[in-house]
Batch of 3 targets.
Target 1
Amino acid sequence: MRRSALLTALALTAAAVTAVPAAADPPSSGYTLVFSDEFNGSAVDTSRWNYRTDVKAGSAQRPDNVSVGGGLMSIDLKAESPPLQGKDWSGGGLVSKKALRYGYYETRAKMPVAGGWHTSFWMQAGNGSTTFPAEQRTEIDVLEQDSVNQRTVHHGVITWKGSGVRGPYAPGITYDSGLDVKQWHTYGADWSETSVKFYIDGQLRHTVSYTPDQWTHDYLNIWLTSIAYPQTANGEGVAQFDYVRYWQKDYYLDNEGPAAYGYSESGGWHDSTVDGWNYTSPTRYATCHTAGNTATWRPKLGGAGSFQVYVWKIAHSGSDPNARYDVGHSAGTATKRVDGTAGASGWVSLGTYSFAAGESGYVKLTSSGVGCARADAAKFVRA
């Protein structure tokens, strides 16, 4: 390439990045940034990302199609001759190794110009080797866009029972955004226990009621991908992402799995066959008719603030009718008694308190010596 042409190309690239609109960021205060990649390096950070490597729809997905440079992550969308794994086209993408739960997710992206490519910013459990892993429960499609359309986008939620078996819940919307999505735009989703709110350029576009059940409390990986779909692509192209970020506002702790980081016990505790609030979530019970057994949930709060504290009460005729819950907060300790034999299982509020950032706050359950104290989950919801 001649020097003048090279300088012109570099200037155009710099102008394109500079023209990217400002980030939208979370829709309200109280969120803490806990995961991000600004793609400012010169290569994919493989300590944080897996490549999408499945074969699906019209393309095979190749790690070589994914690159990082100039502050962007790019997915090259290519024709393959001879065919690659039986496909005439290849796409690709990245899948976060870290799995996350409720909070605000955002990326800034530019769709390919050529038709026939399906570009997505979405969350689901998995490592990129298949879109139908055994552990799939919730899929949240923050953005799905077919490049045959200049302005159409899709937002939605799908529940799964694992390995490609659909669950009972799949609300979503496909609509004319009114925007040229082949230019830079910001896409976000605020996922809570009761809803998913979808945003474009900081504007709320759609809300899905999220009714959690045994399937839908799982941790999700972030996917940034583009494949040939729904029909064969009609030209090569590139999908680009400027960054991806995740902010957390509420904190959920369990007695097992990824949310067990702040859970501890003292005394005698045993696995129970009584269900908890989460899919495949075993509950625990203290040695029955023995006082002084404790279970403690201690969150890692990303920022100071006021939080309403809940515990998941496991209603059972053999539960502790006078279980003690102590909430350690910035001003001291508050105590509440909960009758585990009454009513139905569900979240019980222990009150709203101020907490410092870090791990000084906690909820501690202590058995009364009557019945069997039962422990499963606690949550700290920013007030």
Target 2
Amino acid sequence: MSIQEHAVVWAEIPVTDMKRAMAFYGAVLGVELVENNDGPNPMADFPTSDPKKGVAGHLYPGKPAPKGTGNTIHLAVDEPLDEVMQRIRQAGGEVVSPAIDIPAGSFFYAHDPDGNSIGLFNYGT
């Protein structure tokens, strides 16, 4: 057995309204999600600098877990977390924790408009 470069390779976030979710995540992350119909379901991909390496993910039409009870996916941001918190609220999400400092950086927990648990993480570099 060998240790992989990344333990997580892909994340999927179920949403009830693709257009609303694309607008929310686009506004919060300051990126444009790309519609992708190459798989078995419609998707909206999070952009990544190298799609063949690293960690990426997408939104897909699905049934989210009850509010705040599903897995938490942490998404990277470059901006100060207080600015990202404002964007979460303005885009229809809910901030559910203060910023938390850890050795690798800082993050906070939030819910998207479907109640999915997400973390917004800044490496602090």
Target 3
Amino acid sequence: MTEDEDIRTGRHCVFVLHAHLVFLTKYQRDVFADRHLERMEEIMRDVCADFGAELREFDGAGSHVHLLVSFPPKVALSKLVNSLKGVSSRRMRQEFPELAAHYYRASRLWSGSYFAGSLAGAPVAELREYVERQNRPARGAPQRVSL
């Protein structure tokens, strides 16, 4: 996608807003397999669409996910994040009950914290490449992310 294709228009504005988001699992436990990540991407695309946002890139590993989201100025990023985390946690726990075994006394999938970075001046193509490089490691290979 070229830079011109990233420009979006609203009723009274023209904008290019992107955020790089990283969500960690509770206790940074490795809980996701490829099938979980595939379904997670579908869920997060749907949530973004409900906000008028677009999930441009998605990738992850056992203990975290990376998202590149394009969103309109009317969307408060914190509200989008809360919805992404809440809806994905609820649906993943419903569809994959085996994930509950990883929650020690907590019914939450995600850590309470998250990373959100804006792309002020950074080309979207560079960030897309970064997210794509976060390939899912081979099973059993631990990968940790610190916030």
